[in-house]
Amino acid sequence: MNNVGVLPPWLVLDPLLHGWLLEDIGRGDRTTESLLSENATPGQAQWIAKAPGIIAGLPIASRVFQLLNDQVSFVGLVPEGAKCEPGQMIAQINGSLDALLMGERVALNLAMRLSGIATLTNIYVEKIADLPVQLVDTRKTTPGLRLLEKYATVVGGGTNHRMGLDDAVMIKDNHIAAVGGIGEAVIQIRSRIPYPLTIEVETENLGQVQEALQHKADIIMLDNMPLNMILEAVQLIRSQDNRVKIEASGNVTLETIRTVAETGVDYISTSAPITQSRWLDLSMRIK
To answer: Which positions fall inside the Quinolinate phosphoribosyl transferase N-terminal domain (predicted)?
Structure first.
């Protein structure tokens, strides 16, 4: 499976990487700078997988080292989205030892975090791979890491939901409560948003589903509904407006995702691959 995740340009990512390097290096790497003369000692390192999983984040790790020294060569030995096994070499790095040692922790941390997300995402995706439904992520991401965590979701086979509040309109329960109803919320928003933003409405019961249909929502989210209600909601929506996309959300687990997918929804959204994933264990060995 090698799913193609598109990274933002380095113009966007470099300030983040700079900040994370500064956080780790501080006023200087006391150990490395005491042992080595700057840029004087060439070296080689290997990255080894210590657990099975899906690899994500190698281009980002490469950039970390190149920000420290643009002569560093980072060669990924597996493509993004590839499965790795314990003991497998996944990258080889050549360059000044000071850059390799100073960049090691930040580069590994990012790759391990992203690979963990990609790995758990892929487990979820495999549960529904034969059904016409997409797994999508949420905005429950680590502040500062959203772009990369959502990138890892795609590498693992998932689909990105909106990246931020400016991507699309999602009318949630608190919005509905604030203005007094779905209809009023849709009317106000439709008169103010730019084309071609879509409008999604979060619903909790069949009455709200009907109201969202009446006001021509583009996407209707079925939030935390029991399975029998999801089935009724899907039938109601399909019978009235086959144009509307249907998203199921709330308390989706590996045990329930397939049953939810079999109801006929178009999307299943869950934060679990990001919020519940474990880092994939990787290590760097200097040769």
So the answer is: 29-115
